[in-house]
Design brief:
- It is built from three helices and 15 strands.
- It is mostly beta strands.
- Strands 2, 3, 4, 8, 9, 10, 11, 14 and 15 form a nine-stranded mixed sheet that branches. The protein has a four-stranded antiparallel sheet with strand order 1-7-6-5, with no helix packed on it. A two-stranded antiparallel sheet has the order 12-13.
- Strand 12 and strand 13 form a beta hairpin.
- The termini are far apart.
């Protein structure tokens, strides 16, 4: 007798074979991870082949060469892929990468994907293939609130820093931080919450 796994969706199998003229990948990670972890109800599951489908906003496990299992997102608390933590924030069943977290706020990154239609060159009689385009959006999340979107720039970031702006500006200048770079924004959040 087989036990039902509550992490696996009723939408069990999706075909991953070659898709008609679409270049690139809709998945967050180029390769399906060999050492992922799934956290749910105070339990941890190891999962080979774990990835995130950014086109459908699904958590997936690759099985064999051409099939994936879709996880029930509402039953998963968080996942870890290649030492990157992804968790839900707010009421929606969307998973965000956690870039910075303390007991007050979380700095999050959301991956999305869309299909860019290929162009047709009538003169040459050629058509470009469609392609997947992976995009990223950044959010600040405070418990009990909806995640607030922002851009990686000084104006957008400083809306979250109500005080200590003079200290932050001095720190940015002293350390030559570029606020359009993710790593430097993480360093700024670490500094802000340490002073």
């Amino acid at each position: 007798m087989h036990n039902y796994n509550p992490l696996i969706s009723s939408n069990i199998n999706k075909f991953l074979g070659t898709q008609k003229n679409i270049q690139g990948s809709r998945f967050v990670f180029e390769k399906f991870n060999e050492q992922g972890k799934i956290y749910t109800n105070n339990q941890v599951y190891s999962a080979n082949g774990l990835n995130i489908d950014a086109l459908n906003n699904d958590l997936v496990l690759k099985i064999g060469k051409d099939s994936i299992l879709v996880l029930e997102k509402n039953r998963v608390d968080s996942i870890r892929i290649d030492n990157q933590l992804f968790k839900r924030a707010g009421a929606m069943e969307l998973f965000y990468e956690v870039l910075f977290e303390n007991n007050k706020v979380s700095l999050l990154k959301m991956y999305n994907c869309h299909v860019k239609q290929g162009k047709t060159n009538v003169m040459m009689g050629k058509t470009e293939n469609d392609s997947y385009v992976l995009t990223e959006k950044y959010y600040l999340y405070e418990e009990g609130k909806s995640p607030s979107a922002f851009r990686l720039n000084k104006k957008s970031l400083f809306q979250f820093f109500n005080n200590k702006k003079t200290q932050l500006k001095a720190h940015i200048k002293k350390n030559n931080l570029k606020l359009n770079q993710e790593e430097d924004v993480i360093r700024l959040f670490n500094y802000y919450y340490s002073i």
